[in-house]
Write a structure and sequence with these properties.
The protein has a domain at about 25-130: GTP cyclohydrolase I, C-terminal domain/NADPH-dependent 7-cyano-7-deazaguanine reductase, N-terminal domain (GTP Cyclohydrolase I, domain 2, 2-Layer Sandwich), CATH 3.30.1130. The protein has two helices and six strands. The protein has helices at about 75-80, 90-105; strands spanning about 25-30, 40-50, 55-65, 70, 110-115, 125-130.
Length: about 150
């Protein structure tokens, strides 16, 4: 992807049937060269259990230190919603999202926390990051309480 080539921002987009079909876009970082953290929080993320087909729910917290590119937020919203009818385990969903963001935006650093509501009475929280954060990056807590009804 070269300079700005957004196809969804400002357009009516029907959405995508699967994460593989979803188009995740990026835009140039106007603060390139600065070390800072950008956070996306998706408190109503939904996918399907690949065994039962029942819905699974999570709060996703995505923190990244942008490099040359920013994640275009509308495309991220559409990408995340493409999991709505997608069957995958919690671990697979969380890492697929993190790895796709890294592939698209090429951040200096990224971490994702998937805080999943219980399945079978056990909450499964999934965490992944690309490595050590850049020197001087402020890393706030992700702000999601340990499971107690997650309310």
């Amino acid at each position: 992807m070269s300079e700005i080539q957004v196809t969804q921002l400002g357009q009516v987009v029907a959405g995508f049937d699967s994460p593989e079909a979803a188009v995740l876009e990026r835009v140039p970082n106007p603060q390139k060269g600065q070390v800072y953290l950008a956070r996306f929080t998706a408190p109503e993320f939904t996918s399907l259990c690949p065994v039962t087909g029942q819905p699974d729910f999570a709060t996703l917290v995505i923190d990244y230190a942008p490099g040359d590119w920013l994640v275009e937020s509308k495309s991220l919203k559409l990408f995340l919603s493409s999991f709505r009818n997608h069957g995958a385990f919690h671990e697979d969903c969380t890492l697929t999202i993190g790895r796709r963001l890294v592939e698209t935006a090429k951040p200096l650093w990224l971490r994702i926390g998937g805080y999943w509501y219980p399945r079978g009475g056990i909450p499964i929280d999934v965490f992944w990051q690309t490595g050590a954060p850049p020197e001087g990056l402020w890393l706030p807590d992700q702000g999601v309480a340990p499971y107690r009804g997650r309310g």
